[in-house]
């Protein structure tokens, strides 16, 4: 397996156990790496860890954990003391319960991993657990210690393996009440709702993550490439033109109507080549309905 496991141990369901590896399902290696540098020299800045009181540098071997029990009162914890409190989940993911995947609130999902059998001996036991979960339509709940912290993990069949998603704890999730309680209910008319529904219908398509890309990352890469090939000779480069606003919105109803008119003009009509040709010919001069919509829009603006 090309990827390197972030965690290795065992997956256990009652008396059935198998050797498994936990592999990251997401990657940020393709992102452009930017560092903090010295403006004068162009060299990278080196961060130095110092004592907050004495300002003296602290070597790595002298850096340990300190848990805060009161303000400015820290209890030191040595590495071997942490090893002594190691839990079973440090080496074993024990499936403690099962639930329907739909019952898990999306807010609790944190980070996905792939869970795969680590050797040929473990494949059969792994497949038994995976296939039983798939047939029953259930997801498993267990615990795993990763990055010095025990996390709840959601396990669900995914292809030939399992998708293991780390879950957030309940006390990490904020209640929406504080954010939504002061929001007005609003009373949209049937016509407004109908126009909004039409916009949804026109924009509905099968989800394809490949159609989305990080446009900021692309613009940043282009900026870096441009500066790398053409070093600036004093002065600042031109700023990218801002996207212009689409005109003044008179009210919500007018905005919905403009959106529908815009969607209609941009959506290609289906049919034969002949009808497509007619559509193209009409678009060059503008259809009567489009002209009417344009006049209304101009008048409203």
TrEMBL record:
Pfam families: Ku (PF02735)
Residue ranges occupied by any Ku domain in the UniProt entry: 55-185
Region annotation Disordered: where it falls in the sequence: 259-301
Keyword DNA repair recorded: yes
Compositionally skewed regions (Low complexity) per UniProt: 277-292
Keywords from the UniProt entry: DNA damage, DNA recombination, DNA repair, DNA-binding
Entry keyword annotation includes DNA damage: yes
Family annotation (InterPro entries): DNA_bd_Ku70/Ku80, Prok_Ku, SPOC-like_C_dom_sf
Function as written in the Swiss-Prot or TrEMBL entry: With LigD forms a non-homologous end joining (NHEJ) DNA repair enzyme, which repairs dsDNA breaks with reduced fidelity. Binds linear dsDNA with 5'- and 3'- overhangs but not closed circular dsDNA nor ssDNA. Recruits and stimulates the ligase activity of LigD.
Record-linked NCBIfam families: Ku_bact
Stored HAMAP family: Prokaryotic_Ku
Protein family according to the UniProt entry: Belongs to the prokaryotic Ku family.
The protein's assembly and partners: Homodimer. Interacts with LigD.
Name of this protein: Non-homologous end joining protein Ku
Lineage of source species: Bacteria, Pseudomonadati, Pseudomonadota, Alphaproteobacteria, Hyphomicrobiales
Gene assigned in the entry: ku_1
